[in-house]
Write a structure and sequence with these properties.
five-stranded parallel sheet, binds 2'-deoxycytidine-5'-monophosphate, alpha/beta, 9 helices, three-stranded antiparallel sheet, globular
């Protein structure tokens, strides 16, 4: 049987990976996998300071977790233990918790296996930090999106304002920079482009431009 089609999108927080993953998945009529959501949901499941528990205790707790996908394109739904993962994971606080658990080898090993299991069952656009480098090194197409901290913070700020949520641009810059620092410098699966990834600096590009660049480079 031919391996599934896997397209990977990696990059730092707030660069627009999810938006592009949904658009590409819709275009290719396949599912998208938001692996940041898996780290966020796992962090929330373990609770505040869960990352400080002994590795054996975390490993034991992880045995109770199962991820599944339904639907495709922008309608793809990621489930944890048969329940759709909702907006409760979408805060900067949970983002930082996710970055904290993401440092731990016990968590990365478990989620890598869950992600590869999903990749064995579905064609996917998989987005995260280590999709092209570690989880799907054989992927058909690999992308790495980047943009300055200032640009990413402003995009996030505009999103929050649109959702009528209070936002502080300087605080967002600090939060994004702190998460970048931790994600890029961890010893296991640090954020970096795969050697064969198409790197797109999106700082001065519109959403439509980024999507077009990606479409044009699909194999
Ligand atoms: O993409 P996101 O902001 O939802 O990700 C939240 C955190 O999860 C991110 O700061 C680091 C971690 N993460 C990771 O280490 N590896 C991935 N493939 C996806 C996310």
């Amino acid at each position: 049987m031919a391996p599934n089609r896997i397209v990977t999108i990696d990059g730092p927080a707030g660069v627009g990976k999810s938006t592009m993953a949904k658009l590409l998945a819709a275009k290719l009529d396949i599912a998208y996998l938001d692996t940041g959501a898996m780290f966020r949901a796992t962090a929330l499941f373990l609770g505040e300071n869960g990352w400080k528990l002994p590795a054996e205790e975390i490993e034991q707790k992880l045995k109770g977790l199962r991820f599944a996908l339904s639907g495709s394109g922008s309608e793809t739904v990621l489930h944890m233990n048969d329940r759709p993962i909702g907006d409760e994971i979408r805060t900067e606080k949970v983002g930082m918790w996710a970055s904290n658990v993401a440092v731990l080898p016990v968590i990365r090993t478990f989620l890598k296996q869950s992600q590869q299991d999903l990749g064995a069952r579905f064609d996917l656009v998989a987005e995260g930090r280590d999709m092209g480098t570690v989880v799907f090194p054989e992927a058909t197409d690999k992308f790495f999106l980047d943009a300055t901290v200032a640009v990413r913070a402003k995009r996030r700020y505009d999103q929050l304002v649109e959702m009528n949520s209070p936002a502080d641009l300087e605080e967002l810059k600090e939060q994004i920079a702190a998460r970048d620092e931790q994600d890029r410098n961890r010893p296991v699966a640090p954020l970096r482009p795969a050697e064969d990834a198409v790197v797109v600096d999106t700082s001065d590009l519109s959403r439509e431009d980024v999507f077009q660049v990606m479409l044009d480079s699909l194999k």
